[in-house]
Sequence to fold (161 residues):
Amino acid sequence: MAFPKKHLYNDEVIVLDRYPHWWYLFPRAVLLVVACALGIWALVFDFDTDSKLEGPVQIVAAALVLAALVAFVIRLIGWRSTNFVVTTERCIYRSGVLHKTGIEIPLDRINTVFFSQTLFERILKAGDLAIESAGENSRQSFSDITNPVEVQNTIYKQMEE
Fold:
């Protein structure tokens, strides 16, 4: 879900609100597709008429499909409940459903914004972002950010305004 506006200050406006990159979901999606292919194979494979393997193979395949589906749904819920938000006042990172975690970094306390992308991540427009600020935990890292170069520019632009 989008970042709730009720958590903003009076004059604060959301400039950027992002979920993690879709690549965050990809490994579990591939696992689900492979498990479904295995499940379909177990249903349509022509076992010998006197084979005692058909039932157990189908049960194991069904269990694998169910496990892959549960793993994908859990990852999807985690994806939908994670926000990286840039407002006119601060950067906000929130994640979690049952156990919420978050960090807020005021724009006036940010010293440097770093990004990192491999060649493959550059093709996908994904990457990691790190924000260095004044304070105890001076460096915060965020992974699977969509278009981190644009996010970095947006943060610097908001810092100047």
Q: What stands out?
A: The chain has a mean pLDDT of 89. The radius of gyration is 22 Å. The chain has four helices and seven strands.
